Amino acid sequence: MTASTSSPPPRVVFITGGASGIGAQCARLFASEGYHVVIADINAALGEALAKEINGAGSTQAVFASCNVTSLQSLEEAVALGVSSFGRLDVAINCAGITGGKLQRIVDLPESEFDKVHSIDTRGMFLSLKAELKVMLTQSPTSSSPRASRGIIINVASRAGLEGVPTFGAYCTAKHGSVGLTKVAALEHAEDRIRINAIAPGLIRTPGHTSDPTHRDLDARLAAAVPMKRWADPEECADAILFLASDASSFMTGAVLEVDGGMAAKSR
Ligand SMILES: NC(=O)c1ccc[n+]([C@@H]2O[C@H](COP(=O)([O-])OP(=O)(O)OC[C@H]3O[C@@H](n4cnc5c(N)ncnc54)[C@H](O)[C@@H]3O)[C@@H](O)[C@H]2O)c1
Hints:
- The protein is an alpha/beta fold.
- It has one domain (12-210, 233-258): NAD(P)-binding Rossmann-like Domain (Rossmann fold, 3-Layer(aba) Sandwich), CATH 3.40.50.720.
- The protein is 42% helix and 14% strand.
- The protein is built from nine helices and seven strands, in the order E-H-E-H-E-H-E-H-H-E-H-E-H-H-E-H.
- A seven-stranded parallel sheet has the order 3-2-1-4-5-6-7, with helices on both faces.
- Helix 1 (21-32) links the parallel strand 1 and strand 2 (36-41).
- Helix 1 (21-32) crosses helix 8 and helix 4 (111-121) packs parallel to helix 6.
- The longest helix is centred in the C-terminal third of the chain and has 21 residues, at 169-189.
- The protein starts with 11 loop residues before the first strand and ends with a helix.
- Nicotinamide-adenine-dinucleotide binds at residues 16-17, 19-23, 41-43, 67-70, 95-98, 120, 124, 156, 158, 201, 203-204, 206-209.
- It holds the Pfam family adh_short_C2.
- Belongs to the short-chain dehydrogenases/reductases (SDR) family.
């Protein structure tokens, strides 16, 4: 009898905030690594264009799922679209996020601004975890190896989730929440063979985090505080996320991987 030569089916990655910035770069990188991609985002124009780009580029497929992370129903529908399109959910990247508006101290920060940032960056991540875990818990590990998992989740936190940043009261506390969610979820599911880690990016040049031209001096001042003296490209975050999604990180869960040009080394 001849051994079967069929290769395993492509793995499937689900990305909230997958239409722009770090999430979009993850979509491109994971597609190039042979994953089918689900781009879940509120921005349909960007999300659909990216899915088209990926579908035109190679052998793996992408779908766009219209998704607002402030709604559990919307997230469940987006996850369901991914599962019906590609059969399972191997990796979820929770990247949807906003920074908030004007820089101001807590004493001046409007309640509505605080609530808006928390509804996406923390509550949205909580709801994303619920929708993703529900599916992953029904799946079998990918192989009998002790390193194999039922599912892998990477939460995109921030350097601001690990230290106080004056005038970033809403974002900073929301990202501390995302670090807490990562640790709790990792401990709750360590024995289920679902690994949940976070990355804490520093300054990453994306549409969401690039100041307008009138703030170029602020960009330069921020970069001066980074030991490596520069902003990073989104590719540098996507590479770290791919590592956390791979078997190369098979004994990591509940970790926060800092991708910040050395800023963590200054604050510990
Ligand atoms: N760029 C940085 O310097 C930096 C640093 C630390 C952390 N982060 C985090 O990285 C993540 C991605 O940020 P980015 O810089 O790539 O920004 P970005 O604005 O380029 O991308 C964010 C994406 O999230 C989507 N989104 C926003 N609200 C949503 C919602 N309610 N439902 C679904 N999708 C929604 C947007 O449409 C967009 O596609 C965010 O969580 C951000 O806080 C970024």
